[in-house]
Amino acid sequence: TKYYRNIVLQYRRPIFIKRPLDLIIKAYANQYDQPIFIGSKYRLYTVLQQGSLIDLGFKNRYLNLDVNTGIESIEITNICPSYAQAIDFSAQLIGQHVPFWFLEPSILIDYLDDKINPRNGLLTLLTGKTMIALGSSPNYFLKFLCDQSIFLPVFSHSTLAICFRLGHIFTNDF
User: Fold this and answer.
1) Which of 41, 42, 49, 91 could in theory staple to 30 by disulfide, Cβ–Cβ 3.0 to 4.6 A?
2) Mean pLDDT over the full length of the chain
3) Long-range CB contacts (< 8 A, 24+ apart) of 94-97?
4) In angstroms, rounded to a whole number, what is the distance separating the alpha carbons of residues 150 and 120?
C-alpha cells in the first residue's frame, strides 16, 4: 500500500510425532510510513522491521498452542521534526538498528458453536511476548494479555456478548 510494504519468505511443514505439530520458518521485512494524519501526504516517521522466526504450533478442535522465537531488528527513520516533538522518541535510537531476541507463546481455547456467527460458547486467548535487546544496552520488554469472550443466547434471535481483556507491559526503557 502507500504506507505499508511487506516482504515475507515462509516455509511451512507438518511434523508428526505423537501429536501433529506445524513448523513454520519465516523471514520478513516490513516498512511502515506513519502519516501525520489520515489523508496527509507527509509522514511522521518510518519504521523498518526485519527479522526471522521459527514457529511451532499444535491445533485440535478446541485448543491452539503456539510458540515462536526469533531475532528481529527495528529502525526508526525519516522523523518529521516539527511534528515529532509530541512523541517521546529516544534521540539516540533514531536511525539506529535495534536488534533483539523474542519469544512469544500463545494459547487459544475455542468453545464456540459457530466461528462466524457465535450464539453460545467461550473464546479464551492467553498470550505473552518477551523481547530482549541484543548488544550493549540491557533493555527488555515483557507483555502479557488475557482476553475472554462469552456468548450467551438471549431470546430467540439475540446473543449477549461479553468480553474481558486484561494485560500489562513491563519494560525498562525499551
Assistant:
1) 49
2) 88
3) 97/73
4) 8
The pTM (predicted TM-score) of the whole model is 0.78
CA-wise closest residue to 47 among 60, 63, 34: 34
CA 146 to CA 168: how far, in whole Å?
A: 9
Residues 99-127, mean pLDDT to the nearest whole number: 94
Element (H, E) at 77: strand 63-77
For 93-127, give one letter per residue: b (16+ CB within 10 A) or e: eeeeebebebebebebebebeeeeebbebebbbeb
8-42 burial string, b = 16+ CB within 10 Å, else e?
eeeeeeeeeeeeeeeeeebebebbebbeeeeeeee
For position 134, what pLDDT does the model report?
87
- pLDDT at residue 15, rounded to an integer: 82
